[in-house]
Amino acid sequence: RKMEKQSVGGVGSGDGSALPGVPNRNNKPRALAISIPRQASGDAETDSPTGSHVEWCKQLIAATISSQMLSVTPDAASRDCKVGHTALREGTKQVQMDEVPLVPGETVKAVAKDVMYICPFTGLVTGTLTCTDYKLYFISLERDSPFILDVNLGAISRLETISVQSHGENTQGLEMVCKDMRSPRFAYKTEGASQTEIVEVLTKHAFPLSNDLPLFAFQYKEEFPVDGWKVYDPMAEYKRLGLPNESWTISKMNGMYEVCDTYPALLVIPTSIKEDELKRVVAFRARHRIPVLSWIHPESQATIVRSSQPLVGPSDRRCKEDERYLQTIMDANAQSHKLAVFDARQSSVADTNKAKDGGYESESFYPNVELNFLEIPNIHVMRESLRKLKEVVYPTINEAHWHSVVDLTHWLEYIRVLLAGAVRIADKLESGKTSVVVHCSDGWDRTAQLTSLAMLMLDGHYRTLRGFQVLLEKEWISFGHKFAARVGHGDNNHANSERSPLFVQFIDCVWQMTRQFPAAFEFNELFLITILDHLYSCLFGTFLYNSEQERNAMEVQTKTVSLWSYINSQPDDFTNPFYVDYEHHVLYPLASIRHLELWTSYYVRWNPRMRPQMPVHQNLKELLFLRAELERKVEELQREAASSRGSLSSSSEHTSSPSYSGGTPLHTTV
Amino acid sequence: MLSSLGSGGGKTAKPSFVSYVTPEEIKSEKEPYKKENQPDLLPGEVVFCSACPVLKYSQDDMSQRGVFGTLLCTNFRVSFVSDEVQVEETCKLFKNKLYGENDIPLACVDNIYGGYEDKKKLITGGLLKNKYPSKIIVHCKDLRVFQFSLTYSKEEDAKKIFQGIVHHCLEPKSLRCVYAFSYCENTTSPEMQRKERTMLFDCLEDWTQDMKRTKGNCRLVTENSSFELSQKLPQFFIVPLNVTDEDLVKFQGNGLPMWCWSHHSGCALFKTASLPLSQEDNVPQTYMEKMLTAVAHNHLYSVKTEDLSDTLPTIQDIQLSYNKFKQFFLIDNTTEFWMSDMKWFSSLENCGWLDMIRQCLLKAVEVVECLEKENTNVLIMEESGSDLCCVISSLVQLMLDPHYRTLLGFQSLVQKEWVAGGHAFLDRSNQLHLKEKVESQSPVFLLFLECVWQLHQQHGPAFQFSETYLTVLSDSVHVPVFATFLFNNDSHRANVLRAESPSSQRGPLNCPSVWDWSVQFDCRAQDLFTNPLYAQKTKQDRSQRKSHRPKHQRQLSLPSSAFKTPTKKGFFKDEADSLKKILGVKRISRWMLSPSSDFPPMSSIKEFYETWQAKPLDYHGMLLPCLDGPSIRVWMQRYLRWIHDVQILGGGPVAVLSKVSELLAEVQELRSELDRHARTVTSNHRGAIRTRAKTAPENLARSSVRLSSSFPFVTSRNWSFKPAIPTSMLQSLMMSEVAGDLASREDDGSEPETVV
């Protein structure tokens, strides 16, 4: 082992520019990824505590070997220029300090000088505030290094004037309460016209839908080499699952969304169901969300089926067709003579729902059905929990009582309940070889969380970079998780009780799984954080609107860009270097509080003290690079030996030139 | 629920090696097993008593199932030998040569409980005759939990084994009864190789070398080599140059500033046992002032002092807190586990253990700031001078000196600060169970290891040793074989080893050091002690550092205080005398008034940390820990490794480490291939080598899928691949309590609600 390690240094010392040693200053990931003016502007961003977080996330995670190389090879740098340019907020790097970096299609709406940013971490700083139709951009040059803060307008939940008398007379304060766990505060003089104007402009563009303006996604004019809208093709995905088969058919009955307006056009339903029977089932399920197949086990043929609650009502209504429908689902799986219904709700709440014409499948009416309640609280409880969590982590962390204050938010407790529920579902399929039906009330919140988590545990494909995109497109986007309502895109009604961070909670669960299985996922933490940032940003069309029908009506696919276009144009940044394909291994995360952790690099990322300095991944990337370098040397020697001309000395000259630019395969398959 | 092994995991279900029998089954058999099994005894090990058959409950479920075998008590351990054919030990990579998975070294026994029908009672020695419980529950200091049923063996045997275990594990005994002495008399431990070795600081050269390495300029005291000066002082030690011979003997070593480490700027860290100062008696105060002046003279006439007992917990606090903390991991069954999972965060906070770790790290950072930023000499003190002083001084050195982050460096540090430094290991562990020593029992060394682990998990690549190494070290404290942890100080060790020597000609008894890891583990297991992520200093780095050493060091250090600017050196020489007076006197008088007002305030510490954090991280430079709430964590590997319910199958840090190891192996292979090519440029045998390079690491990676988060301590082979599912009834109780009226609302409730 010792020898190997020395070898790490060996190559580095052979050629200073190719691979700097580990603790080398130049090797800091901050200088990576982004191409042109590297040095001066590079420091700017990282030193400002709330500067572009993508940048520091990159430091944190995505210091890929290939991008390291890009920063030293001229030709590669120019190639990267395109991606770098398009890379959203990192674009800041390429412009002069006094210029606001803009994404294509973005226009400056107002500028105000001498605005004070009340930084909770480093104190007051005065600079220029710019408002565009996409973001708020603050820059101050009064410190040693430029201080930059930028906030996507989409992340703003509400704007509030605050009292800032301590900062002088005639001073007005503005607090932007954001959905992404921060609340930046500004102070400005009321006599300045431009200052007052910018607040007006901000109020207008932060909530475009409330002001009859389009969402920015429709103005964004970036072109990516990859088209993210092609990531999810339902037919292809069902085919991958081995569908249709003799028991299941891919139905087009919802082609015009006439059966259920919140479901996708293509649905997988039991083959033997007749049309008139189906009509009864449609009528018996809340919002017509009938039981449809989400996933099928490749061996046992046990299935995950999702739906909404049955409309049982206070008088215990029955629907023969619905009962038969579930029976058919059970029969489609020869391995088990049971069907497990997982009702995500708390049993008491499910009972209350009966009074409101909802309910659950009674075991006495549905033969061979076993009913389980997963006891997960509703969207209001979750919203309240995240709100409490924000109080605990922003702007300051309660040090002495950290554990008890986190405990009081119950956020991790709910994560635990969700994971535990998903583990039960996955186990029922895997060990019990039994098909499951999952529902909550409407089947678009907790149901989506549970089915997609269970699928992530059961199917290694969803743990890849592309596979996870498919999972989101399918279980969340196409099956009508009400993103617009839950996030409140472009809407100023911050108190709307439909808002709830259910998707954030799901991504947190995924992150917990990646923590427990650090080598089982092809994507990295930056990928998850990027998804959450663009859940709010309104830059991409991916998470806009409530259903496939609405998205079609708004022509989202033709008029906006997909988040996956951006991601898949630079997959290296989002790839986990430790990834090992676990193939068909089922992953059961531990739903024990002892193994759950607060996702500090997302929730507490605005606090500069919580930023890790050097990713551990860095080491591995260096090793990967070293391996590639050695492989290349060996090959070159090979070639030269074959031509029986080359001498060893000349070949080593070749190898030390930094011409390497191809990507190393970042993962291996077992 | 969890014990239904049969249905487990479909394709992943493997035949389990241990067959389980229920008590009912065994009763129906005609005759219980008669034959008694014996473990392979170690040299000098003697069996005291045994009983058979005894049922050992399997840990991982709450049913009454288990394995039958023989329970023995020897002078080294409590041992259970299964009647079943042993799991082929070859598959166990990480096997301790001294004790197996069913052995408990006597010193490792923490508490014994007796199970009487449904009640569980703590056994405290002083037994009632003729009474014995039906069940013995043993909680170990390495956090294992064993449960044995005595109901199947003969009453007499059961009584004997119970009383034997209680007697040998809980009742007072003399030091010479500790197994180490019979072990050492019956083995000849080979001398540790002197070439690349851990410095034991039991000889002059080690001290000279360490002072030379850190460029310290202090006085090496050799006058105590036969403990003429004091029994409390180490054989060799280092004091400031200005300490006179007379000063050395004044208060039996109390108040004497002992050198720990020199900073590259010239200032140094000293520690001392504090002198009781009183109003009436002026002598100690004058002496203390003299000592402080001596420390101040070491560098730039400035000194800061810190009485650790002012701000850090006492050893009793530490013991109390740890006693609460460890209970969360000594889990008897699954139900208990999931119950305690509910209260995890609040329990964690109430016991205060993590906060103690934070306080120690914070204090160390304060000292680091004085040395690094202000280049001031620091003298830390406490009553004993060998408890928290050891914690803080070793942490400071770990943070400032990358040498101590290597494996050998770390071991040398423990030798220097703890073993030679006179930490009373015997009293702190109280493994002799002396009534008068109960108060002095405290896991101070473990607290230090906890702090090291925090640094390790925050800055992994800076350490050459692994997390597993730290865990094993924390276990080894309770293996009564090593001289390292068996004594209270240098003279105690020397006296006992001389007295116990079989013959005076052969010199003192040769007791192995814990650093001789081959006593416990073979080479392959020892491989797990090194951290594959360690960022070894490259050759390039080293040469760089050598060539422009002074410049480089300034880069490393933070902006230093005013009077350390090199341009003013001349000024110092000229006016040294007057300045000396001003600075020296001022500092000391301040210390006399209020001990810790001199120390950097909290805001300064924060700034110090943030300035450091803003710079590029150098794994071979200064390391500071982040102390914010979420950053101080629980040492999962140490505390959760034995609890079946929290094993992440196929996950845990090992998944990452095996990936790195795999890559390292590949790189190694490629390099040797390059070498081969260099030698035989013309011959072409590449193909053969390439295939080998590919297959070996792939197997490694594949195996990580089957490892669990408790690797390497528990192998998951005989576990079913079933998920742990928390009991849901508890959840609902919890939830309804918590959620209040929000929970009963409709998901798409139309009534608007104010979000504050």
TrEMBL record, chain A:
<dbReference type="InterPro" id="IPR016130">
    <property type="entry name" value="Tyr_Pase_AS"/>
</dbReference>
<feature type="region of interest" description="Disordered">
    <location>
        <begin position="637"/>
        <end position="670"/>
    </location>
</feature>
<feature type="binding site">
    <location>
        <begin position="378"/>
        <end position="379"/>
    </location>
    <ligand>
        <name>substrate</name>
    </ligand>
</feature>
<feature type="region of interest" description="Disordered">
    <location>
        <begin position="1"/>
        <end position="30"/>
    </location>
</feature>
<comment type="similarity">
    <text>Belongs to the protein-tyrosine phosphatase family. Non-receptor class myotubularin subfamily.</text>
</comment>
<keyword id="KW-0443">Lipid metabolism</keyword>
<dbReference type="GO" id="GO:0052629">
    <property type="term" value="F:phosphatidylinositol-3,5-bisphosphate 3-phosphatase activity"/>
</dbReference>
<dbReference type="GO" id="GO:0004438">
    <property type="term" value="F:phosphatidylinositol-3-phosphate phosphatase activity"/>
</dbReference>
<feature type="compositionally biased region" description="Low complexity">
    <location>
        <begin position="643"/>
        <end position="661"/>
    </location>
</feature>
<feature type="domain" description="Tyrosine specific protein phosphatases">
    <location>
        <begin position="409"/>
        <end position="456"/>
    </location>
</feature>
<dbReference type="InterPro" id="IPR003595">
    <property type="entry name" value="Tyr_Pase_cat"/>
</dbReference>
<dbReference type="InterPro" id="IPR010569">
    <property type="entry name" value="Myotubularin-like_Pase_dom"/>
</dbReference>
<dbReference type="InterPro" id="IPR011993">
    <property type="entry name" value="PH-like_dom_sf"/>
</dbReference>
<dbReference type="InterPro" id="IPR004182">
    <property type="entry name" value="GRAM"/>
</dbReference>
<keyword id="KW-0472">Membrane</keyword>
<feature type="binding site">
    <location>
        <begin position="440"/>
        <end position="446"/>
    </location>
    <ligand>
        <name>substrate</name>
    </ligand>
</feature>
<keyword id="KW-0378">Hydrolase</keyword>
<feature type="binding site">
    <location>
        <begin position="353"/>
        <end position="356"/>
    </location>
    <ligand>
        <name>substrate</name>
    </ligand>
</feature>
<feature type="domain" description="Myotubularin phosphatase">
    <location>
        <begin position="228"/>
        <end position="603"/>
    </location>
</feature>
<protein>
    <recommendedName>
        <fullName>phosphatidylinositol-3,5-bisphosphate 3-phosphatase</fullName>
        <ecNumber>3.1.3.95</ecNumber>
    </recommendedName>
</protein>
<feature type="active site" description="Phosphocysteine intermediate">
    <location>
        <position position="440"/>
    </location>
</feature>
<dbReference type="Pfam" id="PF06602">
    <property type="entry name" value="Myotub-related"/>
</dbReference>
From TrEMBL, chain B:
<dbReference type="InterPro" id="IPR029021">
    <property type="entry name" value="Prot-tyrosine_phosphatase-like"/>
</dbReference>
<comment type="similarity">
    <text>Belongs to the protein-tyrosine phosphatase family. Non-receptor class myotubularin subfamily.</text>
</comment>
<dbReference type="InterPro" id="IPR011993">
    <property type="entry name" value="PH-like_dom_sf"/>
</dbReference>
<dbReference type="Pfam" id="PF12578">
    <property type="entry name" value="3-PAP"/>
</dbReference>
<dbReference type="GO" id="GO:0016020">
    <property type="term" value="C:membrane"/>
</dbReference>
<dbReference type="GO" id="GO:0016529">
    <property type="term" value="C:sarcoplasmic reticulum"/>
</dbReference>
<feature type="compositionally biased region" description="Polar residues">
    <location>
        <begin position="555"/>
        <end position="564"/>
    </location>
</feature>
<dbReference type="InterPro" id="IPR022587">
    <property type="entry name" value="MTMR12-like_C"/>
</dbReference>
<feature type="compositionally biased region" description="Basic residues">
    <location>
        <begin position="545"/>
        <end position="554"/>
    </location>
</feature>
<dbReference type="GO" id="GO:0030017">
    <property type="term" value="C:sarcomere"/>
</dbReference>
<dbReference type="Pfam" id="PF06602">
    <property type="entry name" value="Myotub-related"/>
</dbReference>
<keyword id="KW-0703">Sarcoplasmic reticulum</keyword>
<dbReference type="GO" id="GO:0007626">
    <property type="term" value="P:locomotory behavior"/>
</dbReference>
<dbReference type="GO" id="GO:0048741">
    <property type="term" value="P:skeletal muscle fiber development"/>
</dbReference>
<feature type="region of interest" description="Disordered">
    <location>
        <begin position="537"/>
        <end position="568"/>
    </location>
</feature>
<feature type="domain" description="Myotubularin phosphatase">
    <location>
        <begin position="201"/>
        <end position="563"/>
    </location>
</feature>
<dbReference type="InterPro" id="IPR010569">
    <property type="entry name" value="Myotubularin-like_Pase_dom"/>
</dbReference>
<protein>
    <recommendedName>
        <fullName>Myotubularin-related protein 12</fullName>
    </recommendedName>
</protein>
<keyword id="KW-0963">Cytoplasm</keyword>
<dbReference type="InterPro" id="IPR030564">
    <property type="entry name" value="Myotubularin"/>
</dbReference>
<dbReference type="GO" id="GO:0046856">
    <property type="term" value="P:phosphatidylinositol dephosphorylation"/>
</dbReference>
